[in-house]
Amino acid sequence: MKTIKIEIKWALIFVFMMLAWMVLEKSLGWHDEKIADHATMTNLVAIPSIAIYIFALLDKRKNFYHGVMSYKQGFITGLIISVIVAILSPLTQYITTEFITPEYFPNIIKYAVSSGNMTQEAAEEYFNLKSYMLQSIIGALVMGIFTSAIVAIFVKSKS
């Protein structure tokens, strides 16, 4: 457990950032009156997400590998963070849905149907807690692996 202490710390930081991001989205109206902007604007979460991976790998390089970290070590660090985030993502989705923005699913279903993008049945099947929990697990793994692969290139030490 001591060998992944840094990864656990940064995975928890990532989870708290995501919850704070959901509060921000809600406060900016992207879950209700400005829901039409949600699909585009939610992508801005990539900025703090990538920053967290950068800081995490730098932390691991400095405080675990004593300033010398290979690409493989950086990638594995990011991969471990991604797995922990993926494991915690259903809980994050539950907290978001139940406490931060319980009206999101009814609002997005209504918008998807009224804009002609989906039928009522399709929208209800896609926009629900179970579906979002599954999407969050897959998304955390896919985006985490991709981000880790790129960030590790820049964070590895030269020697």
From TrEMBL:
Keywords: Membrane, Transmembrane, Transmembrane helix
Keyword Transmembrane recorded: yes
InterPro entries (alphabetical): DUF4199
Keyword Transmembrane helix appears in the UniProt entry: yes
Bilayer-crossing regions: 7-24, 39-58, 74-95, 132-155
Name of the protein in its database record: DUF4199 domain-containing protein
Source organism: Algoriphagus aquimarinus
